[in-house]
Amino acid sequence: MVTKITPGIVTARVIGYLILLLVAGMMVVPFMWMVTTSLKTSGTEFSYPPQILPTQFDFSNYQRLFDNLPFGQYFLNTVFITLATVFGQLIVCALAAYGFARLNFMGRDTIFVLYLTTMMIPFQITLIPLFLIITGMGWVNSYQGLIIPGISSAFGIFLLRQSFLNIPRDYQDAARIDGANEWTIFTRVFLPLNGPALATLAVFAFMGTWTDLLWPLLIARSEQMRTLELGLAYFNARPNAFLQPNWPLLMAGSVVVMLPVLLVYIVAQRYFIQGIALSGVKG
Amino acid sequence: MTNATLAARPQALRSFWRRFWSRSNEKIGYLFILPSLIHIIVFLFIPLIFSFFLSFRDWTKPNFSDAPYVGLENYEFLMEDSRFWQAMSNSGYYTLLAVPLGMAISLGVAVVMNQKLRGVYFFRTLFFMPVVSSWVAVSIIWLTLLDPNVGIVNYILGGLGLPQINWLGDPRSAMPSIVLITIWKGLGFNMVIWLAGLQAIPQELYEAAAIDGANRWQKFWRVTLPLLAPTSFFLAVTGVIGSFQVFTPVYVLTKGGPLESTNTAVYHIYRRAFQEFDFGYAAAQSWILFAVIFIATIIQVVYVRRRREEIQF
What we know:
- Chain A has helices at residues 7-38, 60-67, 71-102, 108-118, 123-136, 143-147, 154-165, 169-177, 182-193, 195-210, 214-219, 228-237, 247-267, 269-279.
- Chain A has 283 residues and is mainly α.
- The longest helix of chain A is centred in the first third of the chain and has 32 residues, at 7-38.
- The model of chain A has no long low-confidence stretch (mean pLDDT 87).
- The mean pLDDT of chain B is 87.
- Chain B contains 15 helices and no strands.
- Chain B has helices at 3-8, 10-23, 28-54, 73-80, 82-113, 120-132, 135-145, 152-159, 174-199, 203-211, 216-227, 229-243, 248-254, 265-274, 279-312.
- Chains A and B meet through helix 1, helix 3, helix 4, helix 5 and helix 11 of A and helix 2, helix 3, helix 5, helix 6 and helix 7 of B.
């Protein structure tokens, strides 16, 4: 359709850009403030009027996070827990999705509907008993306590099943005629053909685990077990024996928490937006 | 084939059953779903049942042996517990502010984005950054921005000659401040959903409206908005459910204060369970919260169904 460029359309576009720029400013300034404050020398952050740019860049705050605070340990914990959860979810959900999408067995659809129903149960209902069960298993303050409850999700199974259903049945039949068993079909046909859906789930699981606060808050008891998110929250709330929290340090910590997620988001943006538009489920 | 006709014809039922059984010969399927099945039973179904029984017990230590059955006592006490109902109404206040405002603002941005301007992908990337960011880091950033003495927001307000606000320190403005941060963080998410809804509206409808002489405003109210009903329903329902579960910003920004003004339901339950170790009572509270969320969802579903009937007629 060819639209004539009228003065009305030009005005609308100009107003549109102005609105978008204004909103973009409101979205970006807090992030810029985070980065520049993290580079301020302690003590200069309260200067008034507020300085957007520091007079000189001071990278020592980052060094202090890792030297005087256990942010290195937090970082390793977070990476390990997140990667384990992502791989766990990919394996468990993909297996289940293949079963639900492509294998016939009694009660399959009933069980699947049951899975779907569980997506409506809010987390806080199971939070307390789950904590007591994990306590009973002796998993408090352990990696398995932080990882295992998150290695499967009904949402992930739903997402992958939708994608698996789109693979033509002929592929499966052809592989069977060639003598492939279900395991081979799953690993050699379905996993390679569903890369985008698997990537979408991986991104969701990554975001959800990396930025989770509530579960680590309950399970990670010692300093050595804390994740970045939890460590930052604790550092904000309680003075440390070696180092008082101050704005530049807190902002440096925020940058460390956020940077990996933002990088993953920018690289994998397509999968993320796709997943949200597809399912409408928040990460 | 319905169940009734099947029951009337046992022969058909038997052959149906035989066909079903012979088709379900891929029993290896059970092996494929087994890990997820074990997971969902151990980490969801058992906790769910456990939670129900827990709410009838006086469970004050994380200890399985020492929890006497108290019947409905937790629920009776809860009905009289003004702190709990204060927390529920705080959550209701938060939801009533955050969901409609967040939806309206993000719809406005989505409509602008839908004008096929150049660079929308760039803007979408920017708007989405807060969505993927960690709540703890976002809360800490806003803690400094909203600082009453040296924060940027009050500096700008002062520069414009407006009164400065003790954002998170005043019981009147603390909850609206958290709502503001929530809207800021969720804008990109709502916008993507709105945008998907907007792009699904057939262009011909606008052309037809233009032929009928409709202006921009009329097109928006008469064409766009009614056709976005499913999208707004989705956003309203998920928004209400999510809002009743807000935890992290409260934990980082205000700890429920000042004067309990930001003590939301989940934060209250968290404190009751994990700081006061009153697990049985907190479990009862979480069931009441679940019931409220459930009823709120049902009301929205019924409302939409009624509206749809009106529109169709």
